[in-house]
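To assess whether ligand presence alters the predicted conformation, the chain was also submitted together with adenosine-5'-diphosphate. Input:
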Amino acid sequence: MAQPHILILGAPGAGKGTQSANIAEEFGVEHVTTGDALRANKEMDISDMDTEYDTPAEYMDQGELVPDEVVNAIVDEALSQANGYVLDGYPRNLEQAEELAEMTDLDVVLYLDVSEEELVHRLTGRRLDPETGDIYHVEYNPPEDPEVEGRLEQREDDTEETVTERLRVYRENTEPVVEHYDDEGVLERIDGDQAPEEVWEDVKETIEDSV
Ligand code: ADP
Ligand code: ADP
């Protein structure tokens, strides 16, 4: 059987990265994430694309969306090379959802539903291990190893001010995407307010039932 094509939707901080890592390991698919891809290419020169700013960094540091042209190309390339994937961070607006429909078919569309108050708390407390890419939280999921704790980093856009803007951008641009898949009848809503292990149980079961 071909490896599954999985889309994971949710607000910034909903737990998409955390659950995508579980999915990639359990189902042997590639984790395709536009956030990580863009962070790795933050200083890329996009001035020839007739965009407002010359690099992705200038959009990301303000919590704004990087132009579709840039992101669509990244996703198209990554999906064409993946044998099964969990796609995280895309589509973030209806135009990107249309593009995605042209590129690939989806076996399951998951939506992690998390309350807004909790999102702010999760994002401002998020920390990353630069060596492994593992995701931690100062309160909910601190590392046990003091050496790991010592090297943890905070993302530049996980400050309270940028988080507020990212959530506004999410409501305006990405909530319609969630509604779009809901209207199509393919959206699998997961209670993302639960503890990570409980969310994972629901995610795993939903994927197993869908593919
Ligand atoms: P989050 O943890 O908030 O879900 P991501 O790591 O997915 O954040 O994204 C970080 C930033 O990268 C976004 O605020 C945005 O600037 C940019 N970005 C990521 N994915 C996209 C996308 N599909 N379209 C436009 N910009 C994107
Ligand atoms: P996203 O990729 O959707 O932005 P992350 O997976 O990076 O979200 O999670 C955001 C923060 O919340 C991280 O610090 C992570 O450790 C924490 N987190 C993820 N899932 C949960 C959960 N179910 N309960 C509590 N904290 C969580």
